[in-house]
Write a structure and sequence with these properties.
- The protein is α+β, with helices and mostly antiparallel strands.
- The chain has one domain.
- Helix content is 39%, strand content 18%.
- It contains 2 helices and 2 strands, in the order αβαβ.
- The longest helix is centred in the middle third of the chain and has 12 residues.
- The chain is globular and about 35 Å long.
């Protein structure tokens, strides 16, 4: 996933409309998806649950 293609303004608008009650599950995410999730967390857009086969 290319983090440059993510429209955070649109994601923020959707999260705000949901009153920030947005939870996203990432299953075996790659580094770019984890980076995008970190940005979203810092901007208080969503809570994330990350699933790996090994404990991280």
């Amino acid at each position: 996933m290319n983090t440059n293609s993510i429209n955070f303004a649109q994601i923020r608008k959707k999260a705000e409309s949901l009153k920030n009650c947005l939870k996203i599950v990432l299953v075996y995410p790659d580094d770019s998806l984890l980076s995008a999730a970190r940005i979203a967390i810092k901007k208080h857009l969503a809570d994330f649950i990350v699933v790996y086969k090994e404990e991280v």
